[in-house]
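Page 37, continued from 36.
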């Protein structure tokens, strides 16, 4: 971790290994997330330290997943 990296990242995981990167991450959009990496987004796109700024995050050094649930409702995918 670099000296200017924040000590905590609390973000939404928007793409996991094998998923397609969403359009909100322009420089990676459409690519598949590699193994042991993931894509996260924060709420403030102009200032957030997230995948729009740093690309893929390495699961082995950055991740603590508290909960991940996928529900289907009327054909739409919701992540809780």
């Amino acid at each position: 971790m670099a000296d200017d990296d924040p000590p905590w990242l609390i973000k939404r995981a928007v793409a996991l290994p094998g998923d397609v990167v969403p359009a909100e991450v322009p420089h990676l959009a459409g690519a598949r997330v590699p193994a042991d990496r993931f894509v996260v987004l924060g709420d403030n796109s102009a200032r957030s330290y997230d995948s729009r700024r740093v690309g893929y995050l390495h699961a082995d050094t950055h991740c603590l997943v508290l909960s991940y649930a996928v529900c289907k409702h009327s054909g739409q995918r919701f992540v809780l």
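The longest strand covers residues 37-41. Flag for discussion at group meeting. The radius of gyration is 13 Å.
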